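Just curious. Protein, please.
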Amino acid sequence: MFFPRVTLLVAALAVPALGADLESARQQLRAGAYEEVIQQAVEATAQNLRVEDWPLLRTRALLAVGRLPEARNVIDEALTRFPFSLRLRLLGYDVLRQNGDVEGAKTLFTEIDQFATQRSWAYRNSEDRLAIGRAALLAGADPKRVLDLFYDPVKKANPEFRDVYLETGDLALEKNDFALAGKVFGQAAQKFPDDADVQFGLARAFAPSDSDATAEALEATLEHNPNHVGARLLIADRAIDSEQYDEASRLLDEALKINPTKPEAHALRGVLANLRADAKGERESRKAALEFWPTNPAVDQLIGRKLSQKYRFAEGAARQRQALKFDPGFIPAKMQLAQDLLRLGDDEEGWQLVEQVQEADPYDVVAFNLITLRDRLAKFTTLTSEHFLLRMDPRESAIYGEEALAFLEKAHETLTKKYGLQLRQKTIVEIFPEQKDFAIRTFGLPGGAGYLGVCFGRLITANSPASRSDSPSSWQAILWHEFCHVVTLTLTKNKMPRWLSEGISVFEERQARGTWGEKMKPRYRAMILGEDLTPVSELSGAFLKPKSPAHLGFAYYESSLVVEYLIERFGIENMKAILGDLAKGVAINTAIAAHAQPIEKIDEEFAERAQALAKATGPTLDWAKPKPGDLRSDAALEEFVKNNPNNFEALMQQAAKLIRAKEWAEAKVPLQKLIELYPNQYEPDSAYALLARVHRELHEADAELAILKKLTELSAEATEAFERLIELARERQDWPEMLANAERYAGVNPLSPLPHRAKAEADEALGKKSVAIAGYRTVLQLDPLDPAEVHYRLARLLRETGDPAAKRELLLALEEAPRFRAALKLLLEMQPAERAPATPPATPAVP
């Protein structure tokens, strides 16, 4: 009797120690001490400890270091000891698949379903409830029901259970609901700030929208787990996006030292090989990725997705088709293929695949967004020409659709001829009146507020002026820019770095019209002469992680300066030869060296050229920033200007102060000096705009007119100047000038009634009646402030042309303004002369 009692006592005393050892092992696993965890689990198994957590921990650690066959052996052996374990079966499902035993994995999955149904009473703890929920999701269960029945109750009952946050966050990521994922992982980070897996979840949630937050979360992940392979792969993924291929390769090497069999690492190596035109390396990397699971659809899906992110949609689509051969129901591949096809212009199959994804997974956010957008697109008007298929909102199409189509044909004629390209298919252009629709069509998700347009090769998507009321931009410049992408992407088979693609498009904007495209301005001058000029060899990274919207704009501008330098220095034929080499898979630096000079020399020469250009901008101005106290009061400002008479910022502030005080004549002095010293300023708040206002207040009409004209020679988006020039032209009855400025205004915002009204008035005055009639009808579609006046003018013109519709327009004018005297008078003039009443028969006399 003594020995059994001692055995029971020892066993009882061992329970707390066992629990402590398990928790220590869990912490080590999360910290990346995989070999230590494996050793502890082996020792626990040798002691015959009947706790399923040990084989679970051992298997996860083995998976983390890529020892796949050994992980399978552990699962097989553990299931003989724990035959009813759901968690072991769920992990085994993953282990067997990674080992290529898809049928064995299905058997385990079937057993999970059987046990969860027949022995539900045995699975009540948090870990088992999560396992059942995850298995239900894999079986295609409604995600909301899984949340309601499993995940949320577990979180409510056990709010300190970290796994429930990870499972819920991962579910949100699987459905592309990044906002929900960010919220869930954010809650987890408050509870478990030192948990690497939680930080990695945050990184993935922020990845599509916040580069800085992603980088911060990835840094925290590796701080808490230096061996976190997933974090290294995501960093490598981002390095590929920014064309830092050597850095990406180094990161992948590090990841493979930790886990030599990681399929995703080998797949990304295959992507790098593809981007470097290394066909052999690509085949070998793909083979390594599929070594243990030859039909793993995730490998080709990942390779294809990354190629599509590089705008190689045809190659990407081929990869997705291969993934779907391995697993026809693999949703990520089907969704990516759908987006690839839609971007290639293959709408019929693309939309069919989106429908299939939506039916299979109603909670996929991207599929839901695209299905909703398709219904809106179905209502668009489609216009066609020789080289274009243009889709627009019906109202907008009626206003400027034909003009946009003609403008696109002009861009086609100019740019295809210049670059020697013959396009074999029509280019598809879609213009969206709502920014969110543009974002969904372009990215699959809302966002992308800084984008005006995007070109995928054959397809162009763009925001219409209706979505840019707060920051007007020339829609013509946007279409010219995006069509230039069609040309260069086609020439290079989509194999060009982003800086070169954007640089050529901005450069060609300026070539087409001097007022288009990014140009030098004070902010860019300071960035060039400061520390923001990026070496040409690193320019694509400037697009991936800009510090601010201004830095992104500067990346476009700097890229265009590089292109300008290359063409002026080495000629357009060498630029075309560089594009030709890129199409063959030649690396950009090699192509530049072959047709210009080595990239190191390019970096050096370009930096000198950019700095010289910056210094030549307002060369006699003092561009130094005043100290905070230098301009703190009017007296301090005057004293500073006295001692620094050419300081740009001080002169601008002095002019602003005088304008606020309505000291108009005095304000002319600093403004005229600023223009004299810096004649090419063009921004909306430039000295030109301020001086024009001063002249107006002083009733100096000729001077105001001259300044406004100069401003419009510098800026294509100076809508306030265009409007004022229209007013002045109307006063002077200078109809050609009025037409010119109305056209300029409509080039920025064709959805405003103002330019169409001005054009119609000018055409009417010039005797172009049919053109004026069309113009007034356009005005009426834009809800003008004075519709009665427009109807009246239209009626008058229609009457002069003998059109019977004149009376209807006149009645519409009177419906809006019943006491409109001119309209009433015209109505009387339009009435036929009244006939005299007939003489009634005489009444017979009464007898």
The two ends are 153 Å apart (CA to CA). Residues 2-30 form the longest helix (29 residues).
